[in-house]
UniProtKB/TrEMBL annotation:
CDD domains: HATPase_RsbW-like. InterPro entries: Anti-sigma-factor_SerPK, HATPase_C_sf, HATPase_dom, MEDS_domain. Gene3D superfamilies: Histidine kinase-like ATPase, C-terminal domain. It comes from Paractinoplanes atraurantiacus. It comes from the Bacteria. One of its GO terms (molecular function) is protein serine/threonine kinase activity. Pfam families: HATPase_c_2, MEDS. Residues 205-318 form the Histidine kinase/HSP90-like ATPase domain. Keywords: Kinase, Serine/threonine-protein kinase, Transferase. Residues 11-160 form the MEDS domain. This is Anti-sigma regulatory factor (Ser/Thr protein kinase).
């Protein structure tokens, strides 16, 4: 398959900040270079970074375009798909914008474990090297090493093809393509399901109605909005249906409250390994109604983890209260 011409314009770059490399000394000079070159720049960063950029650039900062970070950083799959659609719309209008993004791993994530959310975030950072490339808009991601552990920053360098230095973007020496980076993720075991989880076993699709009713009863114990509850039920039903169609019956569905997070796990009896990029790429329009279950689950849940072992394939979804109650726009 030939590479789209605009893909050669795409560059996914990490800007790693530390005590010496700050917003003022590293990001602002980069922005000045982009503005002098006449490149449109779209900023989606936190309040602290935005304030520092505006202060340093002064009137020159008026040329920057600003996005609402709360509008983009929602459920992880939805957030990345939102970015993809934004870049696709710009491309359709004949524009290439340079995106400056500052990841938010914690805002509204509730009791979702930081490790699982960071792992899922980096998976999307990896796959966007393929899914964003056709639109030809460079993306620079700002990561502050003072706010994240060293091993996470090491992985940041693995999912970005370039790193921004004083001399400009240079190829990352540790970059791994998406297929290589994502390989083997479903071999990592999930944490044990708590003993107080509700437990249903489904033999066929006719029992999905029983699952929906049980889910709604359990969800009602927390202040999820009606729309959020609908999203949880749809995601869980899709995961269970996916197991019945593509795995093997029976499908065991367990769900529980963990602090402010509602968790659902669907286990089918197939034990088939999942493709490394399963559910991360938008389904092809010609694919028909099948093959969308995991994609939809990743759009509706905040994080989705998978695990395959002989005789069992598991899909676990986390729905933090604050993030799930945000109305995706």
């Amino acid at each position: 398959m030939s590479r789209p011409a605009d893909a050669d314009r795409f560059r996914h770059t990490a800007l790693v900040l530390d005590g010496a490399r700050t917003v003022d000394t590293a990001l602002v000079p980069h922005l000045r270079r982009l503005l002098r070159a006449g490149e449109p720049v779209f900023m989606v960063v936190g309040d602290h970074t935005a304030t520092a950029v505006r202060r340093s650039l002064g009137a020159a900062g008026g040329a920057l375009e600003w996005g609402d970070s709360t509008g983009f950083y929602q459920r992880l799959g939805f957030a990345y798909e939102g970015f993809r659609r934004h870049l696709a719309a710009e491309h359709a209008n004949g524009r290439h914008v340079h995106v400056i993004a500052e990841p938010d791993l914690t805002g509204g994530a509730g009791d979702t474990t930081s490790t699982s959310r960071a792992a899922e975030y980096l998976a999307y950072e990896s796959i966007c090297n393929d899914t964003y490339a056709p639109y030809g808009s460079p993306v620079t991601c700002v990561w502050d090493s003072r706010r994240h552990p060293p091993d996470l920053i090491d992985e940041v360098r693995e999912v970005h093809g370039h790193e921004l230095t004083e001399d400009g973007p240079v190829p990352s020496r540790t970059y791994r393509p998406p297929g290589e980076y994502l390989a083997g993720r479903d071999e990592v075991s999930l944490d044990d399901v708590p003993g107080n989880a509700q437990d249903l076993r489904l033999g066929d699709a006719a029992e999905l109605g029983r699952l929906r009713a049980a889910l709604r009863s359990s969800i009602s114990r927390a202040p999820f909005t009606g729309e959020a509850a609908d999203d949880i039920v749809v995601a869980a039903t899709e995961a269970a249906s996916n197991g019945l169609v593509h795995g093997a019956a029976p499908v065991r569905v367990r769900f529980w409250h963990h602090g402010d997070t509602f968790v659902v796990q669907a286990d089918d009896a197939g034990g088939y390994p999942l493709p490394p990029d399963a559910g991360y790429r938008p389904p092809e329009p010609a694919a028909g109604p099948g093959g969308r279950g995991l994609w939809l689950a990743r759009q509706l849940a905040d994080t989705v983890s998978t695990h395959a072992r002989p005789g069992c394939t598991s899909v676990r979804m986390h729905f933090p209260l604050e993030i799930t109650n945000r109305n995706p726009a």
